[in-house]
Design brief:
The protein contains four helices and three strands, in the order βββαααα. The protein is an alpha+beta fold and about 140 residues long. It has a three-stranded antiparallel sheet, covered by helices on one side.
Length: about 140
């Protein structure tokens, strides 16, 4: 009978990752907005009353759910925010002179996202940082008043 020597390698968990980053996230983007809302999967809130579940219960999506995109990937959320903003801007341009003031105000309100956060180069930079650093937390650039 032949014996096999096995070499056992122990793997230690990286304890340098801050505790606040060890959870799953979901991202919401309103279709005509550039703001990405981060929702933690373990951000539980207590219920005020205990719902009773019956066999005839009807489950529905949150009200207004057709007005936003939901994803668990930050890069996809950024791309959806950019695509939604461009589509909204195109709609305002198609309105002609009637949409000029709304277009100007939209561009002013979403300046940082349209010109810095959601350009392709910055989306790719965020993606690379997420791949290289698992504790990376994206904080969108905002101009300080």
């Amino acid at each position: 009978m032949e014996t096999i020597d096995l070499e056992i390698e122990t793997i230690e968990l990286d304890t340098n990752i801050p505790e606040r980053y060890n959870y799953y996230r979901s991202y919401y983007v309103k279709k005509a907005d550039t703001n990405i809302i981060t929702v933690s999967a373990n951000d539980f809130k207590p219920l005020k009353h205990r719902p009773s579940i019956t066999a005839s219960a009807v489950y529905t999506l949150r009200p207004g759910s057709e007005d936003y995109y939901s994803t668990t990937n930050l890069i996809k959320a950024m791309e959806k925010a950019k695509a939604g903003a461009l589509l909204y801007i195109k709609g305002l341009i198609d309105m002609g002179l009637g949409g000029t003031t709304a277009l100007l105000q939209y561009r002013i309100d979403h300046y940082e996202d349209l010109h810095i956060n959601l350009i392709d180069a910055n989306i790719q930079l965020v993606e690379q940082r997420m791949i290289n650093d698992h504790s990376f937390k994206w904080i969108p650039y905002r101009i300080k008043n």
